[in-house]
Every structure is written in structure tokens, then in C-alpha cells.
Amino acid sequence: MLDLFKTNGSSPPADITVQNEGSIYILRGRTDIGKDWIEEHCQEGDYNPFGEGARLVEHRYIADIVEGAAGDGLRVEMQ
């Protein structure tokens, strides 16, 4: 099977992106896997919803979330 990411030099898209907005981070699911992971692991009661598959996260929690997603095999990109 041909792997287009290997042949054109591009990386696969991030499952989750993290955008630093100072005292708060925006965590966004960019793929279905990323959105599902956020919905499962970042419940709305603990994190403020910010659209479908996205959450506002305080800086003190973001490292654990990123490590957890990466540990589960998701590709996380800091923006």
C-alpha cells in the first residue's frame, strides 16, 4: 500500500491541537479520533466546552492532558 505521507514528505495531520492563549489553552480535536478522545477524557463538567470537540483548559492541566493523549497514540501539535 502506498503511504502518501512518506512519499510527499508531509506529516500526518494532528489529532489534537493546543493553542496557548496566555492563562488558558484551547484544546481542539482535529480528527474524529481527537474529538472522541477529548469528549471521553475532558468532561464538560471539568473543562469549559468551546465548540464541538474543543475545550478551554487551564494551564495547570494542559501538560497532563497532552501527555495522556500522546500516551494513547494520538498526534498532538502545539500551535
Could you give a short description of this structure?
This protein is 35% helix and 27% strand. A five-stranded mixed beta sheet has the order 3-4-2-1-5.
Task: Summarize this structure as a short list of keywords or feature phrases.
79 residues; alpha+beta; MutS, DNA mismatch repair protein, domain I; 5-stranded mixed β-sheet; 5 strands; disordered N terminus
Task: List the SSEs and their pairings.
Elements (H helix, E strand, L loop, with lengths): L3 H5 L7 E5 L3 E6 L2 H10 L6 E2 L4 E5 H13 L4 E3 L1
Parallel strand pairs: 1-5
Antiparallel strand pairs: 1-2, 2-4, 3-4
Describe the structure.
Strands 3-4-2-1-5 form a five-stranded mixed beta sheet. The chain is globular. The longest helix has 13 residues, at 59-71. Helix content is 35%, strand content 27%. The protein has helices at 4-8, 32-41, 59-71; strands at residues 16-20, 24-29, 48-49, 54-58, 76-78. It has one domain (13-78): MutS, DNA mismatch repair protein, domain I (3-Layer(aba) Sandwich). It has 79 residues and is α+β, with helices and mostly antiparallel strands. The chain is built from three helices and five strands.
